[in-house]
Write a structure and sequence with these properties.
Oligomer: single chain
Radius of gyration: 16 Å
Structural class: alpha+beta
Largest sheet: 3 strands, antiparallel
Length: about 100
């Protein structure tokens, strides 16, 4: 019998301490055997989410706020699907743009 399951894991605590917010398999190390047993491990990633959070913490007149605003205009609501593990196919990053 073939049965698909979608276990989810929250890696927010690990991501908040890193500069690069893209999730990795190492973020699942404390999540039981998900990383080891899964045939496919995928992570959705939106850079715009993290850029907007940084931007909200700054004053509008800050030079860094202007740079982040420009970066947010570039990435917008783009989604990156990271296939970190795929036992039966390719792993990699796949981008989706809402524009």
């Amino acid at each position: 019998m073939t049965c698909a399951s979608w276990p989810c894991s929250n890696s927010a605590a690990l991501l908040s301490s890193r500069d690069n917010k893209r999730p990795t398999l190492a973020d699942l190390r404390d999540s039981g055997a998900i990383e080891q047993d899964a045939d496919i491990v995928m992570f959705p990633f939106r850079e715009g989410y993290y850029v907007a959070r940084e931007l909200d913490a700054l004053r509008p007149e800050d030079a860094q706020a202007m740079e982040l605003g420009e970066q947010l205009r570039k990435v917008g609501s783009d989604l990156e699907l990271i296939v970190a593990k795929n036992r039966q196919g390719a792993a990699g990053r796949f981008g989706y743009s809402a524009t």
